[in-house]
Amino acid sequence: MCSLELREEHQHLFDPAKRELICACDACSLLFPGQGATKYLRVPRRGASLPDFRMSEEQWADLMIPINLAFFSFHSAAARVVVMYPSPAGATESLLNLDRWQDIVRENPILEKMEPDVEALLLNRVTEPHRYFLVPIDECYKLVGLIRTNWRGLSGGTEVWKAIEDFFAGLAERSSIRTERLRA
To answer: DSSP letters along 104-122, please?
Structure first.
């Protein structure tokens, strides 16, 4: 924003109208609150591993997501939850019905605290045990970029799967652990 050279690890802002991330220095990012009536929203830095997350196999099947990696966020401009999944072509939005989403939220009240536009529920159902995280939206797009740049051939190749494994290991290491069960 101010043309200052950015460090490798830097802040991000999110433009909800365009659904796009913008790189920012620490000073510029402070000009924008997390939520409010500004053009950009500051992306939070916190992440949480959700070891007590509950989602039945039936709920997962009802979502009809074609791969076992996905992220859910509330898109304020559309006033609805969107689900995206990473692919070699980039982030792909699922246009499927999310009728079961409210059931999942009832089972996992922590999702009610998810900040619109800038936080997401990230699911990794590729490995056992399945891993669930509440993360800044930029982490989701970091995963998308990792897949795009490392994918080879039809199955992705061993490099991409190792990179995905390393991404989730790093995410788990950086994330706090949220085990509270907030029942309504």
So the answer is: HHHH-GGGGGPPTTTEEEE
Predicted TM-score (pTM) above 0.90 = no
Contact predicate 11/137, CB 8 Å: no
What is the C-alpha separation between 183 and 128, in angstroms, rounded? 27
What element of type H or E holds 85? strand 80-87
Spell out the alpha helix ranges (H) of the chain: 26-29, 57-63, 101-107, 137-150, 157-174
Confidence category of residue 156, pLDDT binned at 50, 70, 90: very high
Using CB atoms within 10 Å of the CB of residue 169, give its burial: 0 to 12 exposed, 13 to 18 middle, 19+ buried.
Answer: exposed
Cα–Cα distance measured from residue 137 to residue 93, given in angstroms and rounded to the nearest whole number:
14
Question: Rounded CA gap, 126 and 128, in Å?
Answer: 7
